[in-house]
Amino acid sequence: MVQQIKLNFSEKLGYGFVNMAVNLIFNVVSTYLLFFYTNVYGLRPADSALMFLIVKVVDAIGNPLWGTFVDKRTTKFGKYRGYLLYLALPYAFFSVIAFITPNVGYTLKLVYAYTTYVFLSLLNVGLCINGALPAAMTRDNDEITVLNSYSLFCSNTGGVLVSFCVPLLVTNISGSYSGPQSQIGWSLTMGIFAILGLFGLLFGFKTVKEHYHMDEADAAQVSVKDFATQAKANKPYVLIFIYMILAFTFMTMVNSGASYYVTYNMANPNMLKYFNVLGTLPSFLIVPAIPWMKKKMGRKGMMHTFSVLLIVGLMILAFSNAHNIALAMFGKLLASLGMIVTTGYMWAFVPEITNYGEWKTGKRENAIISSTYQFAVAIGLAIGGVIPGYILQAVGFNANLSVQSANAMSGILWIMCYIPALLILLSMGLIQMYPITDKLMNQMNIEIDAQNAK
């Protein structure tokens, strides 16, 4: 057995705070931004959908370039850690101004929305070096699982704050979370979350330490071609790339559909904060159990079990009477348990895949691999953002109506339930093909250490 570096509590907590900070803003964007643009800002659904697509195409181009840039350079604070400091304040700033509604004509509002969302999204790309940090912090398989649990716990703490507090704060400030009258509420609420995110990033910068780095000679040779090298030599790298596209597509659709589902299908806007908080609150029970469940069921067994649970929850929401609040909340609870594990544990695959890539190619390309998955995130967010907007446009959704047509409410179910369920089934097939096991991880570490000792 290879003896690996053990992380202390502050390192684990610091990494958790980094993920909480990034996900505070990410969760607001993935859960509420489409609703904000259509119901508060005043954009047409099709215009919002096209903007989501264009912004994420920009992200997709930027991700591999950023990953190559980072892996070729080292800041005075480490290869990845320094960017937590450099990008923290700009990220907080743009997260606020993206939720400000300027008093201008429609065309200028569209330009403003594009500009602020592009900058916010690119800064998110920059900060997603947090995906490269675990592979720089440890190679120990158990430590990776524990580190991922800290990340999930802190991220979902932020998720609870977003789910419950965003509609609550906006409503308390403006009297409603929907309509032009709620604009100031959204801006001030994002100001609060920006401050929390800034603190989380700075705390993470202070406490996280990097223990494993790419050899400087290898770093100097990093190029965009290394993405193709990894894709050719690293099967799990490709499998999880496709998985993440599917996962972020169905997660974005479920999250963005929730505001519409509660407001129109349930016809109970006051329930939104409770409905959304069920999306993250169960994490406090399930996340601490993930290391145990992974040992008992294995990676594949655990992911398959919770994928099925997610589908069952979505089907309850789709086929039950939405006015039956208890049944709808039960369906949401089951779906949330599934979502927390299937979209949370996938990040534990990344440091494993980094090890696998080093084992196969001789290069430990943390940022190359991490940025590939941020590329997948961008694609998933683009697809998950575009589909709802165009479906809403196609089914005749009208943000000015308090009661939508039957066709529009059926469209909301396709956004939040039916299409995501199909994507989850596809994702289960990818997990079934994932080849890395605990035994293989230990073998890889032995051979990597032997090679590095030469």
From TrEMBL:
InterPro entries: MFS_2, MFS_trans_sf, Na/Gal_symport. The chain crosses the membrane at residues 12-37, 49-70, 82-100, 112-133, 145-169, 184-205, 237-262, 274-293, 305-323, 329-350, 371-392, 412-434. The keyword Membrane applies. The keyword Endoplasmic reticulum does not apply. Signal peptide: none annotated. GO terms for cellular component: plasma membrane. Gene3D superfamilies: MFS general substrate transporter like domains (1.20.1250.20). Keywords: Membrane, Sugar transport, Transmembrane, Transmembrane helix, Transport. GO terms for molecular function: symporter activity. SUPFAM superfamilies: MFS general substrate transporter. GO terms for biological process: carbohydrate transport; sodium ion transport. This is Glycoside-pentoside-hexuronide (GPH):cation symporter. It comes from Ligilactobacillus ubinensis.
